[in-house]
Amino acid sequence: MRRVEGAFSKFTGSALALVLLIGLTACGGPPNWVKKGSGAFNEKSDKSFYGVGSVVGVRNEPLAWDTAENRSRAEIAKTFETYTAYLMRDYAASTTAGDFSRNSEEQNIERAVKTFSAVTLNGVKPMDRYKDEKSGTYYVLTKLSLEDMKNNLEQAKELNGQVRDFVRKNADRLFDRLEKEEDKRATK
User: Fold this and answer.
1) From which residue to which does any coiled coil extend (predicted)?
2) What is the pTM of this model?
3) Rounded-to-integer distance, Cα 37 and Cα 21, Å
């Protein structure tokens, strides 16, 4: 009788483990950090900046991982310094002829936004990776601790003037390029 009970308990233990494994696999999904996204978070005693980068549609897996990691680093950089310029042009006209029976109206609205971020960050470390098999999206989580960030701010003070000068020198050229791209799109 003991042999039967022992065999039965081994079977039920194995069956239970299999059911739990299937349940965990079926309930899988992206880790919480994918949903939470990038930002500054204060988790217990860990004050850090996190970046979540992703890429989809890249078949070369090493390239996809590198791209997602670089994008996650860019997310952290945007936390520190981002220059954004916004321009909107709005034109509207209404013309009525002679007896007011004919009316002609026209309007044209254009919007241009450019964003530039340049920061040298030392100490940004990849923490986790995740691939969504259904969509083929690669995700990478990177982290910069508050202590590392404090050290980097001292170095960044020296770069602020250089970044500002670069943006000023290149702002007109970048805007002209944006207008040309918009013109191409409008003629298609």
Assistant:
1) 139-184
2) 0.55
3) 28
List CB contacts of 141: < 8 A, sequence separation 6 or more: 33, 34, 50, 51, 52, 72, 126, 127, 128, 129, 130
Q: What is the DSSP letter of 120?
A: -
Distances (CA, A) of 154 to 112, 151, 157, 170: 33, 6, 6, 26
User: Which pair of tokens denotes residue 161?
Assistant: 């003037």
Domain borders along the chain are: 49-187
Q: What does residue 85 show for φ and ψ, rounded to 5 degrees? A: -115, 140
77: Cβ contacts below 8 Å, ≥ 6 apart? 51, 117, 118, 119, 121
pLDDT in tens, 74-112: 998 888 777 888 889 898 888 888 777 788 888 989 989
